[in-house]
Design goal:
The chain is mostly beta strands. It has one helix at residues 11-22, and strands at residues 3-5, 30-42, 55-69, 73-86, 93-108, 112-124, 136-151, 156-169, 176-188, 193-206, 215-228, 231-244, 249-262, 267-278, 299-311, 315-328, 336-350, 353-366, 371-385, 390-403, 410-422. The protein has a domain at 337-423. The longest helix has 12 residues, at 11-22.
């Protein structure tokens, strides 16, 4: 059996993970870990338009959560490792991992902290490709640097920070080294409101200069935040300037606004809007990151999110509606406009047994190509806590994409079973 290890070159994440594990004392504040087995049967594992293939995927996984605070330190690790085996050989067997790791040491309490962070994700390589294992890669971000805080007066605080960042991707050529710094001067107007001025600078040095262009980015913004009896709101306005090594410069406007309102003890509403101007250098890891194949091109990234959360003794409901626009400047990369909604519902249907329902719709339009996609995902699952350590779950899922490009359409049905055991 042949396995391809994604992230084999990512020594930083592996070293940090091993180091944290070796240092874990048995009496640490929070330490949870477990193993699980998952089997998934798909009738179109490659999400193909006209050549559907059945496949049974066996997954063996391990997850770990560690969180400890002392008077001077805060250590956190949330990690997951999965080995995938495809019984019919439709895809290569692979090992994927993800990890969030941070360690903060307070050299001078409430003044100077030293920070080490590492974030590893398994993300899609090509936004136009299928959401299967062949279109995934490991991305890792290692960040090191200090945070400094100085209280200038009872109402005024100065915060300074700096990071060295190493960005790594194991299947594409966007590795880079980065230096970033930030300064914030915050003035507290009242006990519940404040204004702040923020300056951020970023220098990016790509490993492959034939594919990417090194650049520096400067951002200046003003922010207002306030709290009221049942919520918060904030507004930020600013500008961004990008200077590239090839002599090309760009600038743009930054906008951010958000509000949260807790209607009662069970219901919460929130809305947030962002307009960022970036050269893909921020590289936020995770599913919300822009999925573009040409990363070193300037674009506006605009996002609107509206959410509703409801919690009762036995049920939880979360509704999210979102819109996203990626607007590239002066390059032949398709702009993308997306609109969608996600609903998650969980309820207890019997003692220690929960029903989980999920539905997602996403409509995407790509300029230049004229392509328009409608994606649908629905799933239903049942989870049962058999013992304090053992739990079982089963899931039915349907994935479907409709498109004005017939070659991009597909339908897939999945049935899955999972066993979890906490160690």
């Amino acid at each position: 059996m042949k396995y391809t290890l994604h992230g084999a070159r990512s020594c930083s994440a592996t070293t940090l993970l091993v180091g944290c594990l070796s240092a874990l004392p048995a009496w640490s504040a929070q330490f949870e870990h477990g193993v699980y087995y998952r089997a998934e049967l798909s009738d179109n594992v490659n999400q193909s338009t006209d050549e559907a293939e059945d496949e049974l995927t066996n997954v063996l996984g391990y997850d770990l959560l560690y969180n400890e605070r002392t008077s001077r330190t805060h250590a956190f690790l949330d990690a997951n490792l999965e080995a995938l085996h495809h019984a019919e050989g439709t895809q290569d067997d692979r090992i994927f991992g993800s990890a969030d790791m941070s360690y903060r040491y307070s050299a001078i309490p409430q003044r100077l902290d030293w920070v080490v962070e590492d974030y590893m994700r398994s993300d899609r390589i090509d936004a136009f490709g299928r959401a299967n294992a062949d279109n995934r890669q490991v991305r890792n971000s290692l960040r090191l640097g200090p945070d400094f805080t100085a209280r200038l007066s009872p109402q005024d605080t100065l915060e300074l920070g700096g990071r060295y960042i190493n960005e790594y991707e194991d299947r594409t050529e966007f590795d880079s080294n980065r230096l970033t710094g930030n300064a914030q001067l915050l003035h507290r107007l009242t006990a519940r409101s404040s204004i702040a001025g923020n300056y951020d600078v970023l220098y990016v040095d790509y490993s492959d200069d034939d594919v990417n262009t090194d650049f520096e980015q400067h951002e200046l913004a003003a922010t207002y935040r306030s709290e009221f009896a049942r919520g918060t709101y904030g507004l930020s306005l600013g500008g961004s300037y990008v200077s590239r090594d090839d002599g090309v410069t760009s600038n743009g406007v930054l906008v951010a606004a958000n509000a949260t309102w807790q209607a009662n003890s069970r219901s919460t509403y929130s809305v947030a809007y962002e307009q960022n101007f970036s050269d893909r250098a921020r590289d936020d890891l995770g599913m919300d990151a822009p999925l573009v194949t040409a990363r070193s091109n300037v674009f506006y990234d605009r996002r609107l999110n509206v959410a509703y959360d409801y919690r009762s003794t036995f049920s939880e409901l979360r509704l999210r509606v979102y819109a996203r626009e990626q607007d590239f400047e002066n390059v032949a990369i398709p702009d993308e406009n997306s609109l969608g909604a996600v609903v998650n519902f969980r309820t207890e249907i019997a003692p220690v047994t929960d029903l989980l329902l999920m539905a997602r719709y996403d409509q995407s339009d790509f300029s230049i190509t004229g392509r328009s996609d409608d994606e649908y995902v629905v799933s239903a699952a049942v989870e049962r806590q058999v013992t304090r350590r053992l739990s079982l779950s089963g899931e039915l899922r349907r994935n479907q994409r409709d498109s004005n490009n017939p070659q991009q359409e597909y339908e897939e049905n999945r049935i899955g079973f999972r066993v979890d055991y906490r160690l």
